[in-house]
Design goal:
Structural class of chain B: mainly alpha
Order of helices and strands of chain B: HHHHHHHHHHHHHHHHHHHHHH
Distance between the termini of chain B: 130 Å
Oligomer: heterodimer
Number of helices of chain B: 22
Number of strands of chain A: 4
Shape of chain B: flat
Strand content of chain B: under 5%
Order of helices and strands of chain A: HHEHHHHHHHEHHEEHHH
Number of helices of chain A: 14
Strand content of chain A: under 5%
Mean pLDDT of chain B: 89
Distance between the termini of chain A: 71 Å
Radius of gyration of chain A: 23 Å
Strand order of the largest sheet of chain A: 1-2
Low-confidence stretches of chain A: none
Largest interface: A-B, 22 and 21 residues
Largest sheet of chain B: none
Number of strands of chain B: 0
Helix content of chain B: 55-70%
Structural class of chain A: mainly alpha
Helix content of chain A: 55-70%
Chain lengths: 357, 422
């Protein structure tokens, strides 16, 4: 009785009926590559984990150079289950970026970006960039030695861009050097600016997925494809995936809790062999391997421009892939994807194999 | 009006002369440099060395010390009538150097902060005394300060730069043949190299580490006597010295005629002090004087035992904290607190010089309390690690149950669908 009353009350105010009808009709294609569909859901689940654990950390974290490190130390040692919340937040951040990469490459190789889903691809691409920015800004917040110098290196790279580089660097650092001002700025980006942008992009991304449904790979005829209901079949399977990810997060947090490190000392010299987070490694190593001078250009500047250019091309690839748009196999674009995956994987491995000097 | 014009003209003319004309006028002639730079190696070397010499930089040249007339081209420039002194003997060198360096009015013009008592100090030194008794082998100014290439003492190439001082002294003092008649050891440089001070100076390039002159003095160098060795060490090790002076050892050492610090630590070959030097074991210096079961012997044993106990507690705390750290529990603060335990150990080691068991035990007690707390923190952290693992186990059971029920539900739904299809 009460349920009906509530249903009636809400359905008069929001299009509840339409939504339920939509949910009942919504189906998901079933084929041998269906497993890759779950990575979108995993990304969403991890983002929710990040929001929840982030809010919990916010209750104790203090974003100043004088007390940031100590507040993280307090969270980890004194706050009940603070160690678990902090470790889950750090591990989930890394797994979220890894899952986002997997999601992006699986979408790319299945050519799910083809019309009318170009906008879904674009919002997804920007979401990945935002997640990387989350990683970069969040890394500094514990104000430890490694984070301090990694931020110095990262912001220096931005500073190498001709003309605007200096302004970008000063804007990011909140001054000439990495100081407490940088920390407060990064904190602002991490808890206000980036979550705001993410919410908008994520809402558009999910809305578009609902509008267009999930794309079946090229070569599977539409009328022959098997489908299963989104509610409850697919969502239940999604939940199995989330539970497995949760298990992994808790396991990693108990056996490999995220370290606090040593408090940052701006007057200390940089530790030997400082390396960025794994997701920036391929860019870092590439820039390292480019000679100091290439023709008339600074090697580093050329590398940064190369990455910006490659990123823009990658973002716009759906618009170039005319064959996929006609439901035809586009081997050239598949090869590009395979090359990018191999390049990132190999260079990242090389980065970790290089001696720390 | 006319006077003003003349004044301005004169100012202009003099300025013009100073700025443009002076550099192109022929420079003062210096035949010493002109000739010697072309002579064979031994005779041209002084000219070459003088290039970086501090005296040359201040405008002095050969004739300032050696006399003669550098304005003349031929051998008449080296005529005794022109004040030529030739090669100077040691006494002459001393009087020549002190002629300027002991004159405060003269030295103020060049380096007002430089001391002017070197000659006075030298006269009081062993070197000075021997020179006064006509020993011409002893070192004078030019033996330590390269005569033709004197560099400021803060120049790393200078013969008196801290790191170079031992080698400079060693030129004579490590030469067994040269030192034969003085009947003093010649192994000081070799033994010093191995010492804690030598390692700091030569290997770590620690300019604060003592070189020969820091203990023996430089211009007034003398071997410190038994009574003064301790004062030499106290220059840096003031606290240990003060404690020793208050201890019963002071009186006993004085009566026995033992030099204080040196009796246990040695002199040139002072090795890094270890805890093995304390107590009654092998390598302990206490047993050199204290007989078995004597009061001193027992105190030495007790002091060593107290320090060993604290070290043991520190080690155990460190071990358990490392274990907890490996298990993933944050114990950074407890590990950091062990620095205070280390400070207590160091403090106790120093207090040993005072032989005051009450003070030593108080310090050990303070350190023990911190070490005990750190150990307890370690135990708690291990318990926490175990709790986390158990918690993980329990939560895994729930998650697995949840997954199984989800899979069961999915299977049920799919079964129903197949049945409906049939």
């Amino acid at each position: 009785m009460e349920k009906n009353f509530l249903y009636e009350w809400f359905s008069k105010r929001i299009p509840l009926k339409n939504m339920i009808e939509f949910g009942k009709k919504k189906t998901v294609p079933v084929h041998k590559y269906s497993v890759w569909y779950y990575f979108g859901g995993i990304c969403l689940f991890l983002f929710v984990v990040q929001v929840l654990t982030g809010i919990m950390l916010l209750l104790y974290y203090r974003p100043t150079a004088e007390s940031a490190f100590e507040s993280v130390q307090f969270i980890v040692t004194q706050v009940k289950f603070g160690w678990l919340v902090r470790s889950i937040h750090s591990w989930a951040a890394n797994i979220l970026i890894a899952a986002s990469f997997i999601h992006m490459f699986s979408v790319y190789l299945m050519k799910s970006y083809r019309p009318p889903r170009e906008m879904t691809w674009l919002t997804g691409f920007f979401l990945l960039l935002i997640f990387l920015a989350f990683g970069f800004s969040g890394y500094l917040l514990p104000w430890n030695e490694l984070a301090f110098f990694a931020t110095q290196v990262g912001t220096n790279m931005a500073g190498a861009i001709p003309l605007v580089g200096g302004y970008i660097k000063t804007f990011l650092r909140g001054g000439e050097e990495v100081t407490g001002a940088t920390l407060i700025r990064f904190f602002g980006f991490h808890v206000a600016v980036l979550p705001g942008i993410t919410t908008v992009l994520l809402a558009i991304h999910i809305y578009l997925v609902q509008v267009h449904g999930m794309s079946a790979p090229i070569g599977i005829e539409k009328n022959k494809i098997k489908e299963e209901p989104f509610f409850p079949n697919f969502i239940l399977k999604d939940m199995v995936g989330w539970s497995l990810v949760l298990t992994l997060l808790v396991f990693l947090s108990v056996f490999f809790p995220w370290e606090i490190g040593v408090k940052a000392d701006p007057f200390a010299s940089a530790p030997v062999g400082i390396k960025p987070e794994w997701y920036f490694m391929f860019m870092f190593i590439t820039l390292k391997f480019i000679p100091g001078k290439v023709l008339f250009f600074e090697g580093e500047v050329l590398g940064i421009f190369g990455f910006i250019f490659a990123g823009i091309i990658w973002m716009l690839l759906p618009f170039f892939d005319k064959k996929a748009a006609q439901e035809k196999r586009s081997t050239f674009f598949t090869l590009i994807g395979v090359f990018v995956i191999l390049y990132i994987s190999v260079i990242t491995i090389v980065g970790y194999m290089l001696p720390g000097k | 009006m006319v006077i003003n014009k003349i004044k301005y003209f004169l100012i202009f003319f003099i300025s013009f002369f100073l700025i443009f004309i002076n550099p192109i006028l022929p420079q003062k002639k210096d035949s010493c440099v002109d000739c010697h730079s072309q002579l064979e190696r031994n005779l041209s070397l002084p000219v070459k060395e003088m290039e970086a010499d501090i005296h040359r930089e201040r405008g002095f040249s050969c004739f300032t010390c050696h006399g003669g007339d550098p304005a003349l081209d031929d051998e008449s420039s080296m005529d005794e009538k022109k004040g030529f002194l030739g090669k100077l003997n040691k006494k002459k060198i001393l009087s020549l150097c002190s002629g300027c360096h002991s004159n405060p009015d003269f030295m103020k013009k060049f380096n007002p902060s430089l001391r002017v008592d070197q000659a006075e100090l030298y006269a009081s030194s062993q070197h000075g005394k021997l020179l006064a008794s006509d020993d011409d082998k002893v070192a004078v100014c030019s033996d330590c300060h390269k005569p033709h290439g004197i560099l400021p003492s803060n120049n790393p190439k200078s013969s008196i730069f801290p790191v170079n001082v031992p080698e400079t002294c060693g030129i004579c003092h490590s030469n067994s043949k040269y030192m034969e008649e003085y009947k003093i050891p010649v192994d000081q440089l070799d033994t010093f190299r191995k010492s804690v001070h030598g390692v700091a100076l030569f290997e770590k390039r620690d300019l604060g580490a003592p070189a020969c002159n820091d203990c023996h003095g430089n211009h007034g160098s003398t071997p410190p006597q038994v009574t003064s060795v301790a004062n030499v060490c106290r220059q840096c090790h003031g606290s240990a010295g003060e404690l020793f002076s208050e201890s019963p050892h002071k009186k006993a050492f004085d009566e026995m005629g033992l030099s204080e610090c040196e009796a246990c630590h040695g002199n040139h070959e002072i090795s890094k002090p270890t805890d093995e030097m304390l107590g009654t074991g092998e390598g302990a210096v206490c047993v050199k004087c204290h007989e078995v079961n004597s009061r001193g012997y027992n105190v030495a044993f007790k002091m060593k035992q107290s320090i060993d106990e604290l070290k043991n507690k520190e080690r155990k705390a460190k071990e358990i904290l490392r274990k907890a750290e490996k298990a993933g529990v944050e114990v950074g603060e407890a590990i950091f607190s062990l620095n205070d335990v280390n400070t207590s150990i160091t403090k106790a080691r120093n207090l040993i010089h005072g032989l005051d068991m009450t003070r030593i035990e108080e310090t050990i007690k303070d350190g023990s309390a911190i070490a005990d707390k750190a150990y307890k923190d370690g135990e708690k952290a291990i318990e926490e690690a175990s709790f986390r693992r158990k918690g993980l186990g329990v939560s895994l059971i729930f998650i697995i149950l949840f997954i199984v029920s989800l899979l069961y539900k999915i299977r049920q739904i799919e079964k129903r669908k197949i049945q409906r299809g049939k």
